[in-house]
Amino acid sequence: MNCFLVDAEATRLQGLQLAQYLPAGALLLLSGPLGAGKTALVQGIAAGLGITEAVTSPSYALAQHYYCRGESAPALIHLDLYRLEQAIAADELFFQEAKEALACNSLMAVEWPERLSALPTGAWLLQLSLEGEGRHFQLQAPG
Questions:
Q1: Residue 56 belongs to domain with CATH number
Q2: Cα(33)–Cα(114) distance, rounded to whole angstroms?
Q3: Model confidence over 5-21: pLDDT tens digits?
């Protein structure tokens, strides 16, 4: 799937649609430069999953768990590996959170997956790249 997104609002709307497209328990790896709209896309995904709390970049917290109202398991686990410069630290956080995502059948969105020592198999790969005022969106299914 390829498309051009004119602004941050279009990126959020694409995330809203993507939430309906991704299967439960999916792993989504989001690549792109700073400011390309990775967090805006995850905000749309969260809205599409029925999450009502504000979704922010987990750059400093590294991981955020988001729940639908009344649910005890997270519907979305959002990681940002940007600040983890060593692959061993990124791998450790990723595997810890992936274990919970798998147990809860949560969608897991990972920003800056390039920080991992290797990309996990079975993941959806999403690339955002800046183009003028907008961004190019490219999604690749697993396998």
A1: 3.40.50.300
A2: 11
A3: 999 999 999 999 999 99
Task: Return the structure tokens found at 54.
Answer: 């504000």
Query: Domains in the chain: how many in total?
Result: 1
CA distance 136 to 5: 6
Is 0.90 topped by the overall pTM? yes
Q: What is the 3-state secondary structure (H, E, C) of the chain?
A: CEEEECCHHHHHHHHHHHHHHCCCCCEEEEECCCCCCHHHHHHHHHHHCCCCCCCCCCCCCCEEEECCCCCCCCCEEEEECCCCCCHHHHHHHHHHHHHHHHHHCCEEEEECHHHCCCCCCCCEEEEEEEECCEEEEEEECCC
Domain that holds residue 85: 2-101
Contact assessment for residue 140 and residue 22, using Cβ atoms and an 8 Å cutoff:
no
Evaluate whether residue 120 is within a structural domain: no
Residue 84 lies in a domain: yes
Place of tokens 């791998």: 91
**Looking at residue 71, what is its pLDDT?**
82
Q: What CA–CA distance (Å, rounded) separates 29 from 6? A: 22
